[in-house]
Fold this sequence. Notes:
Blueprint: H1 3-7, H2 10-60, H3 72-109, H4 113-123, H5 129-141, H6 144-153
Amino acid sequence: MSEFESRFDPATSADSSAAATDSADASQLRTLSILYYVLAGLNAFMLLSFVGVFAIIVALAPAGPATSETSSGDSTMASGIAFGLILASFVFSLACAGLQFMTARRLRERRSPRFCQIVAGLSCLSVPLGTLLGVFTFIVLARPSVQAQFAARD
């Protein structure tokens, strides 16, 4: 078979098209995996920064009320609510960073597509980088060729 005939042979072009699709899918999954590592690292860095700022605020805050006229019950309750919200956001961010790290590994290993989709949805809450990453993760994982790669591993 000549080079001209092999270029236009449907069987040959289908094989090369499938190989190109697999190569593009592998490249995009690798890119998503790297970006999830980056996002997890950014979240971890922000958590460390947050802990540092919180430690400075606690160190500089006065130990007691500034005047004896202010009601200590209201300020104690307000500071308790603020501390609870700060703690909840810290725990949520820590959990998201851990889940994003796990998603990066699972995308690289082509395992647990449902888990990756759930974390992609959670990542959408982290505007704007997490939203972009989550949407592109949904787009890539929705392709039949990518689903077939994950099904082969599970």
